[in-house]
Predict the 3D structure of the following.
Amino acid sequence: MQNIIYLDNAATSFPKPEIVHATSSTFYSNNGVNPGRTGCDLAVNAERMIIGTRKGLSAFFNPSFERAGREKDYRRLVFTLNATMSLNLIINGKVGPGDHVVTTVLEHNSVIRPVNHRVRDVGAEATFVQPDAEGYLDPEAIRKAIRKNTTLVVVNHGSNVTGVVQDLDAIGRVCREEGVPLAVDAAQTAGVIPIDMVRSHISFLSFTGHKGLLAPSGTGGICIADDAEIRGTIYGGTGVRSAVPYHLEEYPYRFEAGTLNLAGIAGLSAGLDWIESRGIENIHRHEMELLAQLQAGLLEIPGVRIIGTTRLENRVATVSIVVANYDPEDVGVILDAEFNIQTRTGLHCAPLIHEHHGTGERGAVRFSAGPFNTREHIEAAIRAVAAIARDRN
């Protein structure tokens, strides 16, 4: 394990900070009971940790409230298993028969498939907006796609293929002016770059824990703006008011049925603390310095083509390439087997953006740096790609 160079942080961050492992294990060992289901001390401790994590994440995504001396309604931070589950809840809760949804070709299948199911299964309509050649959206293209029956706009904040980061402030202004709620898929950006739901007019923010927030898998959630509403679509036990025959409408119970991932949420809280102690801007600066080094090296290798943009502003530290005369999967296997470098190959669950960039048939090789990567890791990756490319050029 010490010899592995891990460059697949867009899939899941690895390694995690040691405090995440320690907190998750220790808390669950000492308080691993059902939060909020009883008044015993262990259950109270568990519920206190859950509430503290809700408050922390709610404030993290809504810094405008703190600057204004107000507190965001933390109960509108609901926990899920991951961003995919969050996006399903948002899309299924806002798009019904005859409704129209606007989204983009940048999206992950966690948006594409739920949207397509609403179109096929309930008779909704959908428009997929095209970005420019580099992968960036024109906010006015979003405006032009909105119709009278549009009930939701869903936008990928950061691409898991090319790393492009969209201008949420501009897109949010368009949605606010048109009176349509904006849902943001922040799977690649939560914990990586600052997000302010108020400033960007975001109604629903979907996030996962196991990527930029450095938490265990099986964690994620939705942060819902105080002026936004969404219909609940899962039902079951909440641990309170059990005699009520229907699922509770108030937050967070509207979207939380059954027992929460207690150990995972404890780790999520620790990951957030680790990020805030170091500063999200400092972490992102480190990752972007590595991206700049990686891109510069890759661009000098004959036979290597970078997919999408090479600009360093409005990016996360993700870059995808194709190597001439190679199938991307073969490049990934060689990187792993011969150089101990772990990447991700294929379509990355984002087929439409690959089609947009001309890699829709076989995909690409993706490199994604994280907070624990070093310049030495990047230099080794450049040397490895150069050696692979040289063999067939």
Notes: Residues 18-278 form a domain with the Aspartate Aminotransferase; domain 2 fold (CATH 3.40.640.10). The chain has a mean pLDDT of 96. DSSP finds twelve helices and 13 strands in the chain.
